[in-house]
Amino acid sequence: MIDFKIFNGFPEVVQGMTTKDFGSLNSDENGFQDTIKKLQRELSLPTEPHFLRQVHGNKIHVVNTVAPLSEMPEADVLITQLKGVPLMIKVADCQALLFYDPTQHVIAAVHAGWRGLVADIIATVIRTLVADFDSRQEDLLVAAGPSLGPCCATFTDPHRELPPRFSPYINSENHVDLWAFTQAELHEAGVPPSHIELMKVCTQSSHDLCFSARAGDTGRMGAVIMM
Ligand SMILES: [Zn+2]
After folding, report:
1. Range(s) of the domain holding residue 104
2. How many whole angstroms from 61 Cα to the centroid of ligand 1?
3. 42 CA → ligand 1 middle, Å
4. Strand duo 95-101 + 106-112: pairing
5. Which helix (H) or strand (E) holds 112?
6. Distances in Å between the alpha carbon of 45 and those of 57, 128, 152, 188, 224?
7. What number of CA atoms fall less than 13 Å from residue 165's CA on the CB side?
């Protein structure tokens, strides 16, 4: 289980990200219920985490109930102000970004694959936190665990497949540095560099440690945050 240092010093925050050895959190697979129960025990979560049918968009689901809905909402962002309500994003190569605003007491969990980044998911989340939850950009703390690195994020023709704002992050071999892109998007949206913890471990290069869809895994890692 990965523990993000940026949230240490905030005892009200429970957080972590599973690695491959923990088991798969793919909700479409057998064994999911056992792994979820294990996760609940490991992090002492009072309820099952809320999670989504992730669709590589930028839609936000605001959680207003303690118990998860029986039907998974179709969205890629979870936000809540409720205490004791865990949020989870499932990933294998995509970035799972965890947000905490210690001033307004709001958390967000974000599924940010390249399609989500193209759909402006980072700016959308921050705009929503500011507009609807009174967050200030400079208060936000953001963490992300392993995801596809610039070593392995290959595109056929990234200058055509991605909008122009990705150009500075495309290298000569058609690899894209999505970590640097995310960092730049967070900076541009007003999150201070010292408030960002991106692990920069590549899931495909480290697929002994991580689930990687590009390496052929169907398993998913879970990134969890709760106040
Ligand atoms: Zn790699």
Report:
1. 5-64+73-226
2. 31
3. 29
4. antiparallel
5. strand 106-112
6. 28, 26, 34, 34, 10
7. 12
The model carries a pTM of: 0.97
User: How many helices, marked H, and strands, marked E, lie in the chain?
Assistant: 5, 9
In total, how many domains does the chain have?
Answer: 1
CATH number at residue 101: 3.60.140.10
Supply angle C-alpha 58, 44, 17, rounded to 5.
Answer: 40
Query: What is the rounded distance in angstroms from the CA atom of residue 215 to the CA atom of residue 14?
Result: 30
In angstroms, what is the span from residue 175 Cα to ligand 1's centroid?
Answer: 10
Q: Which of 137, 113, 99 is nearest to 15 (CA)?
A: 99
Distance 206 CA to ligand 1 centre (A): 7
* Two structure tokens written together for 89: 């994003």
For residue 196, which phi and psi values (nearest 5 degrees)? -120, 130
CA distance 187 to 180: 10
Per-residue pLDDT tens over the stretch 4-60: 999 999 999 999 999 999 999 999 998 999 999 999 999 999 999 999 999 999 999
178 within 8 A of 150, measured Cβ to Cβ? yes
Which protein residues have their CB within 5 A of the ion that is ligand 1? 149, 151-152, 202, 204-205
Task: Tell me the angle at which helices 121-133 and 178-188 cross, rounded to the nearest 10 degrees.
Answer: 30
Tokens of 141: 């703390």
